[in-house]
Design a protein that fits this description.
25% strand, Alpha-Beta Plaits, alpha+beta, single chain, 179 residues, 4-stranded antiparallel beta sheet
């Protein structure tokens, strides 16, 4: 049995798409997954599964949320190796001194470096974007409150269907739950 994290996009933010974590745990268990845990209220679920196709697992979650909760929610699934790789690579380690302002934007597809350079031009002075495999590392020293680098902007400019960000604290906690 392999362990995964499901990353739900845009739930419980600003009163939109409210999903209780107890309901999310029950839903994931109803799909036959085991040892289901949630982290925070922002759509992070960790589970064990005999299945190995991350895209299929994400689609399964999306369909179940639509069917059971009546909401269209984009989902991504990553395994422990993905998170360990992201943490080990940490290209922002030398500049990011506040883990709540360091983010990983998880993407539904690979990063196109040329498109990321265009997006980087919209960043505020001091902000940094670094391409990963299916993620973008982002440092926002002034915080995320005023940035133009939103999920929607990443999706539109990078040509991916889903982009969802987690701060460094959350990424490392999810990784710990997966090990």
């Amino acid at each position: 049995m392999k362990r995964y994290t499901g990353l739900l996009r845009g739930i419980n933010v600003g009163g939109n798409k409210k999903i209780a974590m107890a309901d999310l745990r029950k839903l994931v268990e109803s799909l036959g997954h085991q040892d289901v845990k949630t982290l925070l209220q922002s759509g992070n679920v960790v589970f064990g599964s005999a299945k190995s196709d991350q895209a299929a697992l994400a689609e399964e979650l999306e369909k179940a949320i639509e069917a059971e909760l009546g909401m269209s929610v984009g989902c991504l699934v990553r395994d422990g190796a993905d998170l360990a790789r992201i943490i080990k690579a940490n290209p922002l380690a030398e500049v990011a001194d506040n883990p709540s302002r360091q983010f990983v934007v998880f993407l539904s597809g690979p990063v196109d470096a040329a498109k990321l350079a265009e997006l980087d031009a919209l960043a505020r002075p001091g902000d940094r974007l670094v391409a990963g495999e299916r993620e973008v590392h982002m440092w926002l020293p002034d915080g995320a409150g005023e940035t133009k680098l939103t999920h929607t902007m990443f999706q539109k400019r990078l040509g991916v269907t889903i982009a969802t960000a987690r701060n460094w604290n959350t990424v490392t906690k999810l990784s710990a739950l997966l090990s």
